[in-house]
């Protein structure tokens, strides 16, 4: 079962940028002018041929695209559409689920590829105009979907988002009123100079006119390591959902009934933790024989029941460190060596973190 992309306007570059839009250009206060400048660098992310989110090219020479982790997590077949072109394969260079950031790379060079320039999100003030660009999910053929813009103002330039059991704590976001729809995740939030000041990430259910983008100044220092393939915070277990989450079933569209039954059955066995939706092939989690459907209950002798708790441990661990993980099976399982386990039985694994 795969969790839905968050609106969570659903899931970032210390690299000095060359080319793109330079600071000597005139201000582009008109949203249409901003759109014309940055839309060519904004891509639609496709997973299995279906629209899944948005990304933005930040290094055209290397073909590097920034998006949210939750847009690409657990996906094995990724492509992007650039303007009116056809789908182009991409691969995930690295992702950080605890920051909800990921970098993907074009499989083949693209002529005349455009890139966005980073601005200073720290210069934003309440009331400043911002423009969001993205590919909202529609009901039609993805080959005909177009990037769209929404405009708004900064409501708070520095907001810490915490308290979500199945989402990472985000220490620095920009709260604004530029509407973010499903599919906008990973797209750029732009200031009046057409420079990137945020990565569009989520909205909060039950609120209107409040949307959140990971601050550009927070994302930039993380990109160099991600571009080098460093992913200490990503052992390869994907889509962690807290079993205690009252919205657990909503992460599995089309399978809500089965998800609710699983949640209740696991709780009846006295098990609490985070449910693993998928495990990347060839990841350190896969090498430790972890699999989709596992529940993680302890990491490094510490109980974990939420994604932020998992992230706290990963972020405080050293690159290359071996960590002990405990968990439980959610279904009866048979192994290649002829042994078996029943739902509720416990397991243990040792995972070596990336460098």
UniProtKB/TrEMBL annotation:
It comes from Streptomyces siamensis. It comes from the Bacteria. Residues 275-323 form the PDZ domain. Pfam families: PDZ_6, Trypsin_2. PANTHER family: PEPTIDASE S12, PROTEASE DO-LIKE 8, CHLOROPLASTIC. Residues 1-28 form the signal peptide. Keywords: Hydrolase, Protease, Signal. This is PDZ domain-containing protein.
């Amino acid at each position: 079962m795969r969790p839905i992309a968050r609106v969570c306007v659903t899931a970032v570059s210390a690299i000095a940028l060359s080319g793109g839009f330079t600071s000597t250009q005139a201000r582009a206060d008109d949203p249409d002018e901003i759109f014309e400048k940055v839309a060519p660098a904004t891509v639609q992310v496709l997973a299995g041929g279906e629209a899944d989110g948005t990304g933005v090219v930040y290094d055209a020479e290397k073909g590097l695209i920034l998006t949210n982790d939750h847009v690409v997590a657990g996906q094995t077949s990724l492509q992007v559409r650039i303007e009116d072109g056809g789908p182009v394969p991409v691969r995930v260079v690295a992702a950080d689920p605890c920051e909800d950031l990921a970098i993907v790379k074009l499989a083949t060079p693209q002529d005349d590829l455009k890139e966005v320039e980073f601005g200073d999100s720290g210069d934003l003030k309440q009331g400043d105009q911002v423009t969001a660009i993205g590919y909202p999910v529609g009901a039609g053929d993805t080959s005909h979907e177009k990037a769209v813009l929404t405009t708004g103002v900064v409501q708070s330039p520095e907001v810490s988002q915490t308290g979500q059991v199945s989402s990472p704590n985000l220490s620095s976001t920009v709260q604004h009123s530029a509407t973010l729809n499903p599919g906008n995740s990973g797209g750029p939030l732009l200031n009046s100079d057409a420079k990137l000041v945020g990565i569009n990430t989520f909205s909060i259910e039950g609120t209107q006119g409040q949307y959140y983008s990971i601050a550009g100044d927070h994302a930039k220092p993380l990109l160099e390591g991600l571009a080098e393939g460093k992913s200490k915070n990503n052992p390869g277990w994907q889509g962690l959902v807290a079993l205690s989450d009252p919205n657990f079933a909503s992460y599995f569209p089309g399978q809500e009934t089965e998800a609710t039954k699983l949640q209740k059955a696991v709780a009846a066995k006295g098990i609490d933790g985070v449910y693993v939706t998928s495990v990347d092939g060839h990841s350190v989690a896969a090498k430790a024989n972890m699999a989709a459907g596992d529940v993680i209950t302890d990491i490094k002798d510490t109980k974990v029941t939420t994604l932020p708790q998992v992230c706290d441990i990963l972020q405080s661990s050293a690159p290359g460190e071996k960590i002990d993980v405990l968990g439980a099976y959610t279904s009866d399982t048979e192994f290649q060596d002829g042994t078996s386990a029943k739902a509720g039985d416990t397991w243990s694994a040792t995972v070596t973190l990336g460098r």
